Amino acid sequence: MTSDISSAMDLSPAPRVDSEVGPLRTVLLHRPGRELKRLTPRNNDQLLFDGIPWVGRAQEEHDAFAETLRSRGVEVLLLADLLRTSLEDQRARAAGIYAAVDERQLGIDLADALRSHLSTLVPSELATVLMAGMTFEELPAAEGASLVRHMHQPHDFAIAPLPNLLFTRDSSAWVADRVAVSSLVMPARRRESSITDLIYAYHPRFAKTSRAYGAHSAPLEGGDVLLLSQGVLAIGVGERTTPAGAESFARSVFLDGLAHTVLAVPIAQERATMHLDTVCTMVDRDAVVMYPAIRDSLSAFTLRPDGAGGVSVDGPSPFLTAAATAMGIDRLRVIDTGLDSVTAEREQWDDGNNTLAVAPGVVVAYERNVETNARLEDAGIEVLRISGSELGSGRGGPRCMSCPVLRDAL
Ligand SMILES: NC(=[NH2+])NCCC[C@H](N)C(=O)O
């Protein structure tokens, strides 16, 4: 008998992810909420959205995405539910409030007042503020004068909203039985990892979780991390993950014995290719869907443990060859995005490459990428189509919107 109440109550199987395509059992999603209603034409660029989504429709699309996964036997965990439960723990509340209240922006007086106010909220109210932020006009009534309060506009954010929570892939990623909490590089997203961090620390379901990476390390985002096969990782290095992030993540997974090879893959530092999973995702044990414009130029540095606690670096060499060698297969099959270079460019932008595998050879994809989906089917891949006209306005597809927590071994 254990005296630990949380572990006694939680009978769910332990989290573990060793591949991109092993049968998906449990996934973390975030149903978009009030934080999307904060987007305006004045702030959408800074908040990393390319348009102003119709929130009700985005929620419907997201519900259909979750339902598609459930219909394939996947357990869907919703981030807001996990956050509310976690915030029942005083330590989680303190961590969430600490990360949300920026004394440099608010000044000491207002920051103090806001922290006191937030500490009176019940978990569900606090969760809403941590996700959707707070404007100056929503602040509790002023006691005393604050220059900061006087000089801000009513709609300015005292706590910035986190509309990109939708992309649960980026703020954490599992490698074997450990979670890597990301160190997000864009200011609009940095606070997201304080939320995943507190969930993994204080939610009973994750009570026994060890870390593979921490939010205060060099920049690394989950969208750049691909588990090519057991022990083999590819890490995109570009607009988000930095060379230092890839190197320190490699060092960390080697030390923990989670991988024997890490491929560091340079990608263009552009919005269209912000993460490796915008140009390449795995659709089967030995197959990827890939943007043809980079197919032949994509390269990789091969990192391995050097036997003395450090990391050895080889290459660069062509990505497809380096990947096949590290995976111990003859070749990695490549399915191209689109039909011609213009269609491929359009469908890459609309996340045609950003598929989520629910099993080997079965992927969820946006229906709008007609040509890419047809090619996947021609290659024998089953495509579960979802609509994403509103969800896609944040530039992310099924893979970006999901953080697998448990996959069966291949
Ligand atoms: N894994 C991904 N490709 N995520 C897409 C994230 C999109 C998000 N709006 C951003 O700019 O950060």
TrEMBL record:
GO terms for molecular function: arginine deiminase activity. It is found in: Cytoplasm. Keywords: Arginine metabolism, Cytoplasm, Hydrolase. Pathway: Amino-acid degradation; L-arginine degradation via ADI pathway; carbamoyl phosphate from L-arginine: step 1/2. InterPro entries: Arg_deiminase. The keyword Cytoplasm applies. One of its GO terms (cellular component) is cytoplasm. The keyword Cell division does not apply. GO terms for biological process: L-arginine deiminase pathway. It catalyses: L-arginine + H2O = L-citrulline + NH4(+). Its EC number is 3.5.3.6. It holds the Pfam family ADI. Its main location: cytoplasm. The active site is at residue 400. Belongs to the arginine deiminase family. This is Arginine deiminase. It comes from Kutzneria kofuensis.
